[in-house]
Structure formats: structure tokens, C-alpha cells
Amino acid sequence: MILRFDDVFVPDGDDARRWAEEELSNQRYAEAKPTWFDLLARDIARFIADLFNSDNTANVGPSALIIVSVLIFAALVTVLIIWGRPRRPSAVRRLHGGLLGAEDDRSAAQLRADADRAAKAEDWDEATILRFRALARGLLERDLIDPTPGATAQGIAREVGMVFPAETASVRAAAVSFDDVRYLRHPASPQSYAQLAAADDRLSALRPEAVPA
């Protein structure tokens, strides 16, 4: 039931509760929730801060504090190696949203498979578009790049160049191939597709720590 006072609508208790439930069921609230790893990292940080506050340091020797800190740091490093660092909510959303001018939820592996099928059919234009999207999606899935919404192929290439400097030229060339086909309607060739696919394969195998600074 809605009660009306002049021109203001005031919901009763049931309507207010229903509206609140509908609003909170929106997907953006679920995406913004911290992960278990975020909560764990927060709790560990609080624990370390409590160890070193003035109330506790008087009761615990400095050697014990150092040992505890080293153990906690080692545990954090192990967790990061196994599971990786927490992913930002914005990056999570872009994993399943628009990429390079298209709303496409396919994973990098699916995009590569579709690109290979297009290449076998000698549809080099479609293969080029799909393979560059696979390149970008793969790096996004690994949380190595964080392109802004609406990022261009050249913008993604610049981000990749900062992570893998040795691949800057090859990724820029791949972005040019994508732009030529997608926007300038220049036909792709087997050679240009092969170069793009080779760059994607190399990036898939690289790790940031293996690239010289």
C-alpha cells in the first residue's frame, strides 16, 4: 500500500522492503563484494598492525615479532604464487563485457579456437579480428592489463608494451592489422594473420618476471 501526502509518495514497510531487496539484487552489488582473498588480506593486515601497537609490544619480545612477521609474509607470498593477486572489481567486470567494439563473453581459448576455424576456412579478416580479441582477452584474464572501457587496439598495445617491452613492436603491428580489417576494410592476408597469431602465442607463454626491465 502507498500512502500519499500532497505530492510525495511514502512507501509502507512492505513496499520499502521489497524495493530494497530489488535494488540489492542488482548484479553490480555482487560484483563489488570483496573476495575471500581480499577479506583474508585485510584480516592479516589488521593482525600485524595489532602486533606492533604500543599495548602488545610491551608483552611480546622483538624477536618474536620478527619471527611472526616473517612467517606471515612467507604465507602471503605462497598464497600469491598459488592463487595470484586479488582481481579488481573493474577488471572482473571487463572479463565478461565489451572488448574492442563488441559485446563478447567468449574466453581467450574460445576466441582462439574460433579464429583458427576462420583461418582454416581462409576467412583471414574474421580470423584476424578474433585472434586480436583473443590476445587482449588472454592478457585481461591473467590480470596483466586493465584497459579502460572503450579502449582501442592501439591503447591495448601500449599497455602490453609496458608489461612486455620486447613485444612492443609485434603487438603494435598486430593492432594495426586489427584496425586495418575492422575499421579501414583492408583485407587481411595469411602472412599478417600468421604474424598476429605468433605474437599471441608468445605472449601466452611469457611471464612479466621473465622480461628484462
TrEMBL record:
<keyword id="KW-0812">Transmembrane</keyword>
<feature type="transmembrane region" description="Helical">
    <location>
        <begin position="64"/>
        <end position="84"/>
    </location>
</feature>
<keyword id="KW-0472">Membrane</keyword>
<dbReference type="InterPro" id="IPR025403">
    <property type="entry name" value="TgpA-like_C"/>
</dbReference>
<feature type="domain" description="Protein-glutamine gamma-glutamyltransferase-like C-terminal">
    <location>
        <begin position="131"/>
        <end position="201"/>
    </location>
</feature>
<protein>
    <recommendedName>
        <fullName>Protein-glutamine gamma-glutamyltransferase-like C-terminal domain-containing protein</fullName>
    </recommendedName>
</protein>
<dbReference type="Pfam" id="PF13559">
    <property type="entry name" value="DUF4129"/>
</dbReference>
<keyword id="KW-1133">Transmembrane helix</keyword>
